[in-house]
Amino acid sequence: MTTCIAALLLAFLRSWALTLVILSAVPILIFIQALSQGIAGPLLGREREQTAVSATMVDRAVAAISTVKAFNAMNLEHERASKSFGGLHVTANALNRVWGLTSGVAQFVMMAMFVQGFWFGAKLVREDKATAGDVMAVFWACLIATSNLQMCIPQGILLAKGKWAMVGLLTTVQDSPSSSSSRPLRKISPVKCAGELALHNVTFSYPSRSTIPVLQDVSLFLPANEMTFIVGSSGSGKSTIAQLLLRMYQPTEGSVCLDEQDMRYLDETWMRIQIAGVGQQGASGVVILDGKSLFQNVALGYANPERQASASQKAVEEACRAALMHEFVRDLPDGYETLLGSGGNGSGVGLSGGQKQRLAVARARLRDPTVLILGTLYFFF
Length: 381
Prior knowledge:
Number of strands: 6
Strand content: 5-15%
Order of helices and strands: HHHHHHHEEHEEHEHHHHHE
CATH topology of the largest domain: ABC transporter transmembrane region fold
Number of domains: 3
CATH superfamily of the largest domain: ABC transporter type 1, transmembrane domain
Mean pLDDT: 82
CATH class of the largest domain: Mainly Alpha
Radius of gyration: 30 Å
Distance between the termini: 60 Å
Strand order of the largest sheet: 2-1-3-4
């Protein structure tokens, strides 16, 4: 952009009339770019949704490949994946046609602009209103300016993709009001939490498989101050129940209640303080901050950044003892101050899968929530 502005200033100083004639097509280029963004925007959103559905489908099939093979479901999974990829392919082709047509028309307009400039420049030379050197100087300055401006179009495409991705992210993390009214409801923040959970006639299906119900008319009561186990065969809905209790998803029908209050009407910040979860992803689902000490990684269990910064050594050690992690930490070179991951200079310590799971449990213990939901069984040896 700096080169573009400098070249335009030079062109206007040499011959403002010729510069205006050459740049007369710039509004057309801007219109073409705006039109392409308007057409490509919904296509980018559709592509993002279809990519997410396809990725979920592939990830689920690969994670449970033994089950797929055991039930001879390879052809079924292949057919469903091919259908999903087909829709993604159509959307991607439509996007390619939009970007290709935009680039082609923009290049045509830009070249036509210079043809027009040469014609007008020759006219000015014949009328002794400009020299041949002025015409060439203006021509090259405008060429450099428009070429650099053209280089911004791919960056604009990246920015457009980023904006639509951010829209998807904000839509995911933002809870929409349950009421159809345009005025958002004020969420409830109870004074205390007993920790009693209940599912009332819950029916649920994942967005990527909306036609296949995972839970159907399920009612469940989980009393407070007790340890409750939900057991069942693979695919019976245990993890789905955990995700509903953690409000990762909303039930299609029915309600999920905490202390006889529908979770949809409870304040999200208050709920994050009262309920914590350790997912079933195992080591792959545990976030490790590279270059931060083990103490700082455990302190992430606090939801409040201020509490993370002021976490005490005693509280962190107690959490690690509860997760059977203290002995391992004690044997590290710098104890709780040992850097994890790359450490910035390659001096960090890597954690095994089991150690990462213990770290996740230590974070949950440090937060000390009213309700702790474990998405899978953890075996410590």
